[in-house]
Design a protein that fits this description.
- The protein is an alpha/beta fold.
- The chain folds into two domains: about 80 residues, no CATH class; about 300 residues, TIM Barrel.
- It is about 25% helix and about 20% strand.
- It is built from nine helices and 21 strands.
- Strands 15-14-13-12-11-10-8-7-21 form a nine-stranded mixed sheet. Strands 1-2-3 form a three-stranded antiparallel sheet.
């Protein structure tokens, strides 16, 4: 069994092929060959032996290649990198510069993702890579998501190696997190397939900023997702995230209405930016109508970080106010996070109001869900439940796979 311990940084030397021009008809021929779905494992590009060729791109008439992974639709000349920095045009294809490389692995409580209705109390093996396809000025994991240095990637791991590590350590699921797995979707899909072969479930922690075709392919391999709904105005997304709101709403509608993925949603409340009553009322009205009352919603506290250092940390009463607004709209499972709030962390039965899962931070002190229903009145409680919760608690254990 792998020992738990501190992560060790290992410098990686990545070779890159030379930059050269290709004729347009050659680009179109290559695009036709690899732009569609690629089933099974990604393999290293045999042309230079370094970076595997990615999916979801096509050639343009002007000689550029367009990445179709997310709504940015980055259009690249030879040698250029996309906004996320980890997808690059190389030898007239989009290649993945971080496939099989990670910033580190850790065993976390599943509630930390946060997921409160998905195998409560169990450990999840979490890992990420580098880069991001959003430009959030308030990023809480900016040292990873905004990294443009391959040296940030401290460990290498095959999909099968990750799945075996989860099995050995008792993790019930593997989470693609720390940075957005959208930008390394091919790697995540391969890991998910390896995990499912061993009975391990998969979790995506994401901002939901993804194109239609990639979204459909990616989520066919995912068991649960926590999607960040960062605010409910286009102005916020444009100014603070360099992105758009509508594609995130499309992802949420797709997940809830067209897939079997278990979905929970998180909004980080930033004082003076997305915590006003009018915006919260509008967001919760849309949430109730588009997603329904049974999708859990988490309001979490902001702390000053990265490029947004002016706002103060979110006061606990702001989270309490937001929770009250959401509950007034008929949302049944509304939680608070990043603060000590036992009431805001507890799951209540929507029928009899019994306290079903009492949480203090990530510790479960009471569990009364039996066969997926309230033990007091038998009302079904949406989620992925077992009759006994896990006992992992609030531990966080860094892990080396080798």
């Amino acid at each position: 069994m792998s020992k738990l311990g501190a992560l060790v940084n290992i410098r990686l030397v990545i070779s890159h092929s030379g930059v050269g021009n290709r004729r347009r008809h050659g680009v179109r021929r290559l695009a036709k060959r690899v732009r569609g779905p690629i089933l099974g494992r990604m393999v290293a590009d045999s042309r230079d032996g370094s970076n595997p060729v990615g999916r979801w791109w096509h050639a343009l008439e002007d000689g550029r290649i367009q990445c179709d992974l997310c709504p940015r639709n980055c259009r690249l000349h030879e040698g250029q990198r996309a906004f996320c920095f980890v997808r690059q045009r190389e030898n007239d294809a989009i290649v993945l510069t971080t496939y099989g490389r990670s910033t580190g692995f850790c065993l976390d409580p599943i509630e930390k993702k946060p997921l409160n209705h998905f195998l409560p109390g169990t450990p999840v093996l979490s890992f990420g890579t580098a880069g991001c396809n959003l430009g959030c000025k308030f990023c809480q994991n900016w040292d990873i998501s905004k990294s443009r240095e391959i040296e940030r990637l401290s460990e290498t791991a095959t999909p099968e190696g990750i799945a075996r590590a989860a099995l050995r350590t008792g993790a019930r699921s593997v989470a693609f997190t720390y940075n957005d797995p959208v930008i390394w979707a091919e790697y995540a899909i391969d890991v998910a397939q390896a995990c499912h072969a061993l009975g391990i479930k998969t979790v995506a922690v994401t901002a939901g900023y993804m194109g239609e075709a990639a979204r459909r392919d990616f989520y066919s391999h995912i068991d649960a997702a926590n999607v960040d709904l960062k605010a409910f105005t286009e102005a916020f997304y444009k100014t603070l995230c360099a992105a758009e709101l509508e594609p995130v709403k499309e992802t949420l509608r797709y997940l809830v209405r067209e897939t079997r993925v278990w979905v929970e949603v998180t909004t980080l409340l930033i004082p003076g930016h997305n915590d006003g009553d009018a915006e919260l009322h509008a967001m919760c009205d849309w949430f109730a109508d588009a997603l329904g009352p049974d999708v859990p919603l988490h309001f979490t506290a902001f702390h000053p970080d990265y490029k947004l250092s002016d706002p103060v940390a979110t006061p606990p009463e702001t989270l309490t106010r937001a929770r009250a607004i959401a509950r007034s709209k008929g949302l049944r499972y509304v939680y608070t996070g990043n603060v000590h709030d036992k009431l805001g962390g507890t799951t209540h039965c929507p029928s009899c109001d019994a306290a079903l899962v009492v949480r203090d931070w990530y510790e479960i002190s009471q569990f009364r869900v039996v066969d997926g229903a309230c033990s007091a009145c038998a009302t079904p409680i949406p989620g992925v439940w077992e009759n006994q919760p896990g006992t992992w608690g609030a531990r966080r254990a860094p892990l080396r796979l080798r």
